[in-house]
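Worked Example 4.2. Consider the chain below.
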Amino acid sequence: LTVPANVADYPTLGDLHVSKYIVVVTTDPLAPAQSIEYLKIRVEQLGTGAFITDFELPIKVGEKVNAALSPATQEVNLSLGESISTRITVNNVGNTPADFSVLLDDSQAGEITYTMETSPTLQIGAGYADTVKIRLTPSVDARADANYEATVWVSNLQSGLNVSAVIVGNMSEEHGISISTVESIGVIPGTVQNVDFSITNNGNLAEDLIVETKVGGNWTLTPANFSINLEIDGVHDGTLDITVPSLGGDDSLTNGSL
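Applying the procedure from the previous section yields the following structure tokens:
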């Protein structure tokens, strides 16, 4: 810096002999709030290096409120009839103790009930952590092919901090297909016999099915195979047309034969 002598202001009083410069200070992230750190400034003559003066500039560390949630996203695997709890860790990564509010947003929860089992307010010291406990309970209508999630929000009113973590409820697949039809039926040789049947989806997800039908001997039936899509609790009603051979062929059609 080039600083004129104070006589440079003569004959008036002014600030020509004053020169300003900016000091940019970056505090240690772990420096406690309200603590005082001192910056030592030494002034020397530029040409000779002769010592002129030195002084210490006190710097007060301000408050920084911050939090980090872990994990940011998690999946909880569930089966029908289960009730499982999980936790989210709230880390105070600021430099001052802080009060945090916890809010559970279950607008996307669907058929899973999310329940917060810990306090909606947390008091956490700087560098420390606490946990939020959430319980997940699926209803009997929860599907394995649907998306269910809830968001945990952690906020601090004074600083405006607002951070979140997502909990995804993942339903295990439970397949359940039942077929109902007659167990036995009498037929007349040389005719076409109609056999009604029903296929029901009792599982917890929509099913894409390929149905194959078979009959012994030289008998024929239609359809031989077909594909269907069944939603949960969906029912497919159909009919098989079985062609019964006439008497005199290779098939034994004695009374009561199967």
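Residues 254-258 have pLDDT under 50 and may be disordered. The CA atoms of residues 3 and 17 lie 6 Å apart. Compare this with Example 4.1 before moving on.
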